[in-house]
Amino acid sequence: MEKPHAPSTEKNREPILAVLRDVFADRRQVLEIGSGTGQHAIHFCAQLPQLNWQTSDRPDFLPGIHAWLAEAALPNVLPPVEFDVLGPWPKGCYDAVYSANTLHIMSWPAVEAFFAGLPAVLAPGGLLFIYGPFMVNGRHTSDSNAAFDQSLRENAPHQGLRDLLVVDALARQSGLELVEQRQMPSNNLALLWQMGKACAST
To answer: For residues 202 and 190, what is the distance between their CA atoms, to the nearest angstrom?
Structure first.
């Protein structure tokens, strides 16, 4: 099949990789939630061979991910598992979870389910890395983010930029502590939380 292509991944992959080189330097097992096309996974894992990266997404995205992974043929990127945060979570215990540009696409119940499910898959001291645009204290951080938020809500009312403080409250309820926040290009944020308790499945 013809591989799907997400142009935004080529714009943001190098800034994100620069952060991951630092914060994932001592990580080994990564679960990516919402792999999309799979382009991020293969780009990062080609540069960070110590990572074993589990891709995942909803069923309609899996053929595209398979196509990218087949072409790259990287030993440290695992075939995607079918996963919707509102359904059963993958088995396993990971020392990192990665998700980019997903929270503003999910419905709010899905965002709540995302954070509620993390204790089942994150090991003690495990890291959650989230990338994307956010509001802060109920306000947009740029005119472009405000316009993007409006376009999302007009096209799909369940979507929209999330407020960092509200998202952090969900994270804290699941035993996560916000340990780092970095400004990224195009008015995005790289957010890093750390888990303080063991995987519930262990």
So the answer is: 29
Q: Give the residue among 19, 9, 29, 54 at the shortest CA–CA distance from 179.
A: 19
CATH of the domain at 159: 3.40.50.150
Burial tier of 59 (Cβ tally within 10 Å: 0-12, 13-18, 19+): exposed
CA quadruple 48, 52, 53, 56: dihedral, nearest 10: 170
Question: Along the 202 residues of the chain, how does pLDDT read in single tens digits?
Answer: 577 776 766 778 999 999 999 999 999 999 999 999 999 999 999 999 999 999 999 999 999 999 999 999 999 999 999 999 999 999 899 999 999 999 999 999 999 999 999 999 999 999 999 999 999 999 999 999 999 999 999 999 999 999 999 999 999 999 999 999 999 999 999 999 999 976 765 4
Instruction: Tell me phi and psi for residue 147, to 5 degrees.
Output: -65, -40
What are the DSSP E strand ranges found in 33-149?
A: 52-57, 77-82, 94-100, 122-132, 134-135
200 within domain boundaries: no
Please report the beta strands in the chain, taking only residues with DSSP state E, as ranges in sequence order. Answer: 29-32, 52-57, 77-82, 94-100, 122-132, 134-135, 162-163, 176-184, 188-195
DSSP 105: T
Domain limits for position 141: 7-195
